[in-house]
Amino acid sequence: MNSTDSIFVAGHRGLVGAALVRALQAAGYSNLLTATRQETDLTNQEAVERFFASRKPSYVFLAAARVGGIMANNTRPADFLTENLQIQTNVIDAAYRHGVKKLLFLGSSCIYPKLAPQPIQEQDLLTGSLEPTNQWYAIAKIAGLKMCQAYRRQHGFDAISLMPTNLYGPGDNFDLQASHVLPALIRKFHEARLAGAQEVVVWGTGSPKREFLHVDDLASACLFLMRNYDGEEPMNVGSGEEIEIGALAEMVRQVVGCQAPIRFDTSVPDGTPRKLLDCSKLRALGWTPGIGLTQGLRQTYAWYQDLLALNDYLPRTA
Ligand code: GDP
Questions:
Q1: In the annotation, is 137 catalytic?
Q2: What confidence tens digit (pLDDT) does each residue in 91-121 have?
Q3: Is the dihedral of CA 144, 289, 204, 117 positive or negative?
Q4: Which of 29, 96, 112, 137 is catalytic?
Q5: Nearest protein CA to atom 13 of ligand 1, as residue
Q6: CB-based contacts of 289: which residues, under 8 Å, 6+ apart?
Q7: pLDDT in tens, 300-314
Q8: What is the pTM (predicted TM-score) of this model?
């Protein structure tokens, strides 16, 4: 990938896509292609075809997807399955047919069986049943990585797949019904501090464990693998920093400076008990993450406060 190659970042307004744009710009890549949903709806095959025919990217980072936390996944199964299948099928197929040199597909650690041995290795894929709350998203992502493998085998198309662990960072979704746990906790504790609330509700039992990776570390791994990996097997990308949800909530409470005690709402599902990725394959290639959870959490909270201040400052249009 040369600094003048045309690089399409699909999903550049999302958490991952925005981090990819930052990382590519910082690394000196000047010919970045992006498209908003209004310009090119990636669920629409004709629109995707027109985009590739006219813009002719040489490299593609496929970060566009319908994503969300446990509540969104569990309540909108049709959207998660259909939109993700549409986006990835349209983009991977068009990329191959329009002569893209290399494509990087982003999956998720939820593709692995609910009760996979920990830490989870790439070879554990399809060895057991999926976690029911996010199986729709997982099935779509498994189809995406299989599509990359199939196009490599049948057509020699250089498509690689990454399976990141739970991500967080600037640009995350803070909508409490749709978000993942970390932005949800930041918002809940922040609002509880301002309101002097008596308690903060954390979903589930607090005992599931999750591994968190800062999105800028993921973007760095994406660039590294685009340059250094051309294998058929998906590549796990994690931080090794695993924490119980209860302990995470306590950590966020302290970073935000909130006094309110935590109450666990056990009527909400826990999801998978644990999903720690084994990243020895990636480490062996020479990549390591750089942003610890405490540092990343402080930085993300600062970003969230800046966002709120900006929203207060901007004139309201509605
Ligand atoms: P998951 O990793 O796919 O299960 O996605 P999430 O990030 O949405 O949830 C991770 C864990 O955090 C689950 O056990 C949730 O029940 C728990 N959790 C606790 N409080 C919250 C919250 O306010 N929002 C979300 N999304 N999850 C929460």
A1: yes
A2: 999 999 999 999 999 999 999 999 999 999 9
A3: positive
A4: 137
A5: 270
A6: 213, 214, 217, 220, 221, 238, 239, 240
A7: 999 999 999 988 766
A8: 0.95
